[in-house]
TrEMBL record:
Pfam families: DUF2304
Compositional bias (Basic and acidic residues): 107-125
Assigned keywords, A-Z: Membrane, Transmembrane, Transmembrane helix
Protein name per the record: DUF2304 domain-containing protein
Segments traversing the membrane: 6-23, 35-53, 65-83
Source superkingdom: Bacteria
Spans annotated as Disordered: 107-131
Coiled coil: none
Length: 131
C-alpha cells in the first residue's frame, strides 16, 4: 500500500524526468525548464516531508495546513500565466516589427510578379537584356 508521501514523491520525480526528457529533445527551452524543474522538486520535497506545510501554515496563520498547498499552487500558476503573457506580448511585438521591416524592404525592392527578375534598384542593366 502506497502512502501519499511516496505517491507525491514519485509524481515529482516523474515530472522532473519528463521535463529533462523534453529539454534533451529540444521541446522545452532553458528558462521554461527551470520553472518546471523547480515545480517538480517542490512537489517531491513537500510530498516527502508534509510536516513542512504544517510549520509553514503555522507561521503564515493558516489554520488548515492542506489549504496552504492549494493557495501556493494557485499563486504559482498565476505567476506562470503572467510570465507566459509577458513573453507572448514580447514575441508579438517582435513579429510586428519584423513584418514592418519586411514591408519597407519590399517597398524599396518590389518582387517580380511576371516571373522575370526584379529590376536592379541600383539602375544597372542586366547583361542578358543588353545583348
Amino acid at each position: 500500500m502506497l502512502t501519499y508521501q511516496i505517491t507525491s514523491t514519485v509524481l515529482g520525480i516523474a515530472l522532473a524526468v519528463v521535463i529533462l526528457w523534453l529539454v534533451r529533445r529540444d521541446h522545452l527551452h532553458g528558462p521554461y525548464a527551470m520553472w518546471w524543474v523547480g515545480a517538480a522538486l517542490a512537489v517531491a520535497v513537500l510530498g516527502s516531508f508534509p510536516r513542512v506545510f504544517d510549520v509553514l501554515a503555522g507561521y503564515l496563520g493558516v489554520s488548515y495546513p492542506p489549504i496552504l498547498a492549494l493557495i501556493l499552487a494557485f499563486a504559482l500558476l498565476m505567476i506562470k500565466i503572467l510570465t507566459m503573457d509577458l513573453e507572448r506580448s514580447r514575441q508579438e511585438r517582435h513579429i510586428r516589427r519584423l513584418a514592418q521591416r519586411l514591408a519597407m524592404l519590399e517597398a524599396r525592392h518590389p518582387p517580380a510578379c511576371d516571373g522575370r527578375p526584379a529590376p536592379d534598384p541600383r539602375g544597372e542593366a542586366d547583361p542578358d537584356e543588353i545583348g
